[in-house]
Design a protein that fits this description.
The protein is mostly helical and about 300 residues long. It has one domain. It is built from 12 helices and 4 strands. The protein has a 4-stranded mixed beta sheet, with helices on both faces. Strand 3 and strand 4 form a beta hairpin. Helix 1 packs parallel to helix 7, helix 8 packs antiparallel against helix 9 and helix 9 crosses helix 10. The mean pLDDT is about 80.
Length: about 300
């Protein structure tokens, strides 16, 4: 799909590299499992079915989990108006528009392609941001749609899901198995260790891609609107308000961190484990872009 979002070749290269590396790890993982487990085919089929469901129904799954609903222009004229203007500027099809009724300020894009794409905004964000700030957030989300990185992230997460399923499957089959207990224990231990290593590798690769795609969407979205400072203002406001929301409420949506505009919860351990770059990194990059574009101070 050609749009007026600037082509992001570094993002495309990183997505291809991540998928390639995960493919190599996946092939090695399956080869080892075939040696250790006779019933690995069942696990792979189950994992593939889960991936297919997540890929083809990601929009429905996300909207249902967030208790969001598709809204019409009559229901949300301001939101639709901003998206209409941005899509016209970007020369891209308009995605469906959804609103999640929650005070947590956030937004996300989902869907495997432009035809199935949905941009969802929470009522908390609609209340907190002015029009310029909301435009910055929505241009960020539309960049995700234009670059198709939502679909790539869904596929890239497949190996981690498979590794987790294999670890559980081997554990349960060992607990229920009979005969040659010593050999069974060794096989279970080997499979569990290999699965954990594979999960860790895939986890770190996907998180690295996730952080870069957020920086790429910040840049592409800000270049589309020509107002990096508005996006920086929205980031600052949303991140500050998220810090005041009870942790138990944020944990209920933590699974969506990789797709949110701003993470509901930080990793608290290391930048290697984060789905997003630090707030300061994002603000600094937008400040550099603002200087490049000669944008007046906001």
């Amino acid at each position: 799909m050609r749009t007026r979002f600037p082509p992001d070749r570094p993002l495309t290269a990183r997505m291809l590299l991540t998928v390639f590396l995960l493919g190599l790890v996946y092939a090695a993982f399956i080869a080892v499992l075939f040696v250790l487990l006779k019933s690995v085919v069942v696990v792979v089929v189950i994992a593939a079915a889960l991936l297919g469901a997540q890929y083809f129904f990601s929009d429905r799954i996300a909207l249902t989990a967030m208790r969001a609903r598709i809204v019409t222009e009559e229901e949300e004229p301001r939101l639709h108006g901003i998206i209409d203007r941005l899509c016209a500027t970007a020369d891209m099809p308009k995605p469906r528009v959804a609103v999640a009724d929650t005070d947590m300020p956030n937004a996300f894009a989902t869907g495997r392609n432009t035809r199935r794409a949905v941009v969802c905004v929470t009522t908390g964000m609609l209340r907190r941001l002015d029009t310029a700030e909301l435009e910055g957030v929505l241009s960020h989300e539309l960049s995700h749609v234009a670059h198709r990185d939502v679909a790539v992230m869904t596929v890239a997460s497949f190996l981690g899901v498979l590794a987790g399923l294999v670890a559980r499957f081997s554990l349960y089959s060992g607990m229920l198995g009979r005969g040659r207990r010593d050999q069974t224990v060794l096989v279970i231990l080997a499979v569990s260790v290999i699965s954990m290593v594979v999960y860790a590798i895939s986890f770190l690769l996907v998180r690295a891609l996730s952080r870069y795609r957020e920086l790429a969407a910040d840049r592409s979205g800000a270049m589309l609107t020509g107002r990096p400072s508005a996006l920086a203002s929205a980031l600052t406001k949303v991140s500050g308000d998220l810090a005041r929301i009870p942790t138990r409420d944020l944990r209920s949506v933590e699974a969506f961190n990789a797709f949110f505009f701003a993470p509901a919860l930080g990793s608290g351990l290391s930048s290697l484990l984060s789905t997003h770059p630090s707030l300061q990194t994002r603000i600094d990059r937008l400040g550099e872009l603002s200087a490049e574009l000669g944008e007046p101070a906001r």
